[in-house]
Amino acid sequence: MVLKKIIGFFFPEEVDFFGPMDTMYRLIGETLGVYIDAASKQNLSPFDREKLLTDLKILERKGDLVVQEVTSGLKRSFTPPFSPLELRRLFSCLDDAMDSLYESAMMNITAEYRGGLPPFVLEQLMAFQRGIAEATKTVDLLRHSRQGSAELAATLTRMCDIEMEGDNIYWRWKKELSAKLNRAALGGDLSAYRRAEMDEKILDQLEEVLDSLVGMMKVIQGMIIEHA
After folding, report:
1. What digits encode the pLDDT tens for the residues 2-37?
2. Closest by Cα among 116, 20, 113, 134 to 72
3. What is d(CA 28, CA 94) in angstroms, rounded to the nearest whole number?
């Protein structure tokens, strides 16, 4: 054991961090696919609801394993492609996105006040899907960051535009839900008030999911500056 540690000290492993990065983006994409499929249905049966949570939990656990693999790899490598701090931050952002998607689905399912999911869920998820599709491109661009710096900057700009699009979706629906809350309160309609209140909570949570694009952009920008 001691000899192994000595060898590891003088001959550190070449650890691949781009593969796990790509895997995390793929898992987020798969998570979005499952969630979008559910949001596209007018009504969700008890089986559909249970399957949604089960599928998302499986994907979330896979993401946790990737993050654990990266944490272990950082301990074994003296020469990661970027600073360990920046890599931890990036994978933390990706892990948080996975967790937030699962928590959003949990809130939707356990609320039990609609047959299907609120209409804005599909809009927000599809915007996030476009953002993740752009973020996925950064893996190869970071691998060759010097040669692909211009395209990397353009990709981050597109991610920013998509996040702003998500903000527009959010505020459009926020305004509508606020009006519904006011009408329900004035009319004493407790059922309508509860529905609008739950819709607002889900809208807010998915806005946080879209905001994770900003976190990814900031970390990637930090990686570029550090590597310049």
Report:
1. 444 444 444 445 678 889 999 999 999 999 999 999
2. 20
3. 8
Distance CA(63)–CA(20), nearest Å, equals 9
Question: Per-residue pLDDT for 59 more than 60?
Answer: yes
CA distances in angstroms from 2 to 5, 12, 14, 15, listed in the order given: 5, 15, 20, 21
Q: How confident is the model at residue 148 (pLDDT cuts 50, 70, 90)?
A: low
pLDDT in tens, 184-195: 999 999 999 999
CA atoms of 149 and 63, how far apart (whole Å): 28
Instruction: Characterize 88-102 residue by residue with b for buried, 16 or more Cβ atoms within 10 angstroms of its Cβ, and e for exposed.
Output: ebbbebbbebbebbb
Give the CA distances from residue 108 to residues 38, 82, 176, 178, in Å, rounded to whole numbers and listed in that order.
11, 38, 19, 19
Question: Closest Cα partner for 212 from 104, 108, 92?
Answer: 92
